[in-house]
Amino acid sequence: MALADDLRAAVRDHLADRPGASWQECARELGLAGLMVPERYGGAGCGPLEMAAVAEELGRVLSPHPFLQSAVMAVAALRECEAGDELAALAEGGTSATVVLPGDGDLRLDGDLLTGEVPYALAGDLVLAYVDGLLVTAEPAERETYVTMDESRPLRRLRFERTPARRLGGGSWARVRDLGITALAAEQAGGAARCLEMAVEHAGRRHQFGRPIGSFQAIKHKLADVLLLVESARSAALGAAADVGEVSAAIAGSYCTEAYLTAAGENIQVHGGIGITWEHPAHRYFKRATSDAQLFGPPQAHRARLGVHVFGD
Description:
Residues 18-72 form the Acyl-CoA dehydrogenase/oxidase N-terminal domain. The chain is of the alpha+beta class.
């Protein structure tokens, strides 16, 4: 965990000093783009624990960087295929990638031609898609960027019309999905922790009836409940990173999603009137928590997958 802790501190300091740093700058100065790329392809060769530490810090500041889809999911997919050229390109940080999982869209592969549409995909320069058990890459005929509630996580519609596709190989798309859920859970834990910090800071500053509102029992109980959620969410996220698999990812995906939604909502409640204004950042965390809750399916979907392992078919 020493390396993960060092990474966490380095990323937090860098984001505090340079909040507007581009993805290319983060790739060059921190090596985030190539964090999980094998060393032989120019990356750092780190694992899920280090990935979770970085994701947690990015979640704290609502980073718009494509770490989740590019540095985690795309790298995992390309590693399965030993796609060295693509991995080296991602490690440099000059390009990003996104992954289309089975079920994310209606895609058909006719020979080496890809046709179909992906209604919602995370933004990325290189598009990787699982079709008929294969990982392929193709340049969409059309990319439409949505105007979304959560502007910090761009979504696009991708359309392919008999587009030439290059086959990269097979591999386990389920592991790519579970790594994505694990990274998202760490982001959610980081965002929830920041919501709690903001609420505690406000409860100590805001006075009512001559006392800080944090001294009132109702606020104390509210903050204590959120603290329990935040610590449990972090444990679930780290547990999933320590043992990436469908069960641990489903647990983290379910718990961290609901913990973040609750923490973001309670942060607004503690702030009162100022918490619902456009100028205060509380609404941005609530929007991110809400959009995250749909990214890999809602908590109920994670629990349904977990239920198969617990109760059987």
